[in-house]
Amino acid sequence: MSVVRFTGAYVWANLRVALAYRGAFFSAVLGMVINDAIWVVFWWLFFTRFPSVDGYGFHDIVIVWSIGATAFGLAVGVAGGAFTLASRIARGELDFYLVLPKPVILHLLVSRMDPSGWGDALFGVVVFAFLASPTPTDAVTFVGLSLVATTIIVSYAVAINSLAFWTGRAETLSDQLIFGLITFATYPEKLFTGAVKVVLYTVVPAGFVAYIPVSLLHEWDWGWASILLAGTVASVGVAVSIFTVGLRRYQSGNLTTMRA
Amino acid sequence: MNTFPGRAGRGVVGHAAYRVRVIQAYFVVHVRDQMAYLGEVALGGIILTVFLFVLTQLWQVTFRFQGADTLGGYTLAQVIWYLVLTEAFVTSRVAFARKIDSDVRTGDLAYALVRPGGYVSAHFGAYLAERMVRFAFALMVGGVFALLSVGPVSVGPVPVLVGLLASLVAILLDFVMVLGIGLGAFWIEDTSSIYLIYTRVSMILGGLLIPIDLFPDTVGAIARALPFAAMIHGPARLVLSPGLGEVPRLFAMLGGSLALAGGVVWWEYGVARRRVTVQGG
User: Can you tell me the distance from the alpha carbon of A239 to that of A97, in angstroms, rounded to the nearest whole number?
Assistant: First the structure.
């Protein structure tokens, strides 16, 4: 419970810092909403011309985007530090967090916030509410699945950014892998088969971020729900393990900075 | 070390020649800079390949599911090559509006304005270098991808050359538009969201992911009336078409848009320069 209160307090503080530049904050949020909307317009254009592709329609892609955008938005909005971890490791900037009472990883995750993430989350929720015609049960399921997907995205970001403990520089690689995850997670699962599908449930876990949640929203299945839960626990375990082992190799940059 | 020869000659011709030399000098320096960091450029190829792979899967499934050999006049191979050409244009974009935005907000613009050569010329030379290297690289990576996934398509040498020329004009138009967005920092706090909206709107209405010929009629008509279609769809369509029938309309649209945007940004730059204030230092 104290972890939830701690995270909430950090997010609130980050929000207040971001809102100090009100114009920049709201333009970042609005920009991201428009960015996401443009993608949905692309799919609307596509499905207007081809109403169904292998059983997939506009309604399905709306659900894919609502879960994907909400989860990614929450990930960078609440735990934006996960996405900048590689550069901070490379510059030896973790010293400050090593002496704090809470777990180092938790501090690092919540210490940064990308305001545009709130645009993603807002877009995802609004699109789901207005275009997916949800029942109250659907709405509750959507919230739960979005939180699970958020956990997997943050875990993935931690795992790939932590490679910087070994490689020194991993920003570009981690950015590309995150881009790959987002790209694959926002397209219909039916496009991918064979070895690519295996990759999408392992190295780039788009299957856990989008495909299983979307199928559960369509039709609840305890078997798939269990697989999703197991995948989530595994992804958290892998991320924490990689970070913990990597942290032993960390070398300080001896930076002198003022934190106000 | 590159130096700019002085303002040789007087009048419009002398001044223009001087500007060309400035742009050329910045271009050469920044091409070398790009070559020094070719690894970074090459990593961008991974993103392009992932994106092309996903879109290829989408169009392969679409063609299979529709049971058609052609859609909107395109074969599957032509659609993939079309995507290579449009993606090369879009992924080679240089987000220099961010630099102008930063120059304005931090006050660095005051230093930049007094340097010899001119602020816009310096940015244009650097932009052209980075854009050309990225564009060529994207065409190469995309071309290899398309060859391996769908094989070659038959194209004529003249449409290819005229299409590349149209792409160059489109790249110039893109520079003018992004310059206008960056200079917006004189009036608004942060232009990054405007740049984002510009790139996304041009992406959709330019026909990046779906050829405009496959748009619903009304949306297609709106898209064709805007410059984005001439920048992104137009050159790609031209390269893949057998004749040159679309050339006059395409260049008229590109030229007209360039003249209009150039005029607006010229006026904006003049107003912006008058708003520069120097506060000690």
Answer: 18
